[in-house]
Structure prediction request, 252 residues.
Amino acid sequence: MAISKDLARLPKHVAIIMDGNGRWAKSRGLPRIMGHREGVKAVRSVVRLARELGIQVLTLYAFSQENWNRPRDEVSALMDLLVDYLESELAELLGNRIALRTIGDTDRLPDKVKIRLMETVSKTSVNKEMILNLALSYGGRSEIVRAAKILAGRCLSGEIKLSDIDERLFAGCLYTAGLPDPDLVIRTSGEERLSNFLLFQAAYAEIYVTSTLWPDFAKDDFLAALSEYGKRERKFGLTAEQLAGPCTGKGL
Ligand code: IPE
Ligand code: IPE
Ligand code: MG
Prediction:
């Protein structure tokens, strides 16, 4: 594949808020679930391209904590779709040496989903080429509260001191412990909000919003997002002059 100049600077971790399945279906007079089904095809093509390009971590926001409040039929259809996806993708994940991981309150998922997830995570865990991280039953605020509770428990038990708590220790108690922060957050369907996604981790992520609805998000759209990322100047609070200087971004 010809990789353009802008793609020379690739993000290590791309996180995608896959939005617009319902609108995609509605605009065609179809039930919402058809939009979710079509969305799975976009997932496949994005995972393949991420792997081909050498992106290390791809996090996909597939189901939020708030999505549990959707109509029961839609939630149950989404859970079935997830089981189908995990069954159909195992060979592809193994063939491409991709490890599947999840973030979120996965205990809340139905048993049939949990069983498939555990199986896929364990069978792919040795894979080193890329991490495909599915955010399922995920909410950024409750992830932060959960981390605070873990640390409070460690303090109370005397394992750590209050003064030991810093950003690094806190990050280690999030679902994403051990993963780099997302460099690029993509949101499809034009909405300009985070919807409770990676609130702690995305502190310095570049945000890219496209009006393309998720089922229509094709390889070209992904390449356009990566190319735009390549043109951004990430400053991490520094001045442009500092960034141009010899000690650029040290320690960041
Ligand atoms: C994203 O598409 C998929 C999930 C949230 C599960 P939506 O279902 O939110 O699609 P719209 O926003 O209604 O178009
Ligand atoms: C965010 O999309 C969650 C996922 C993509 C899984 P939503 O459609 O649920 O977000 P809002 O309701 O538009 O903020
Ligand atoms: Mg939506």
Remarks:
- The radius of gyration is 19 Å.
- Residues 94 and 124 are 6 Å apart (CA to CA).
- Helices lie at 21-26, 32-53, 72-95, 111-124, 140-156, 167-171, 219-231, 240-244.
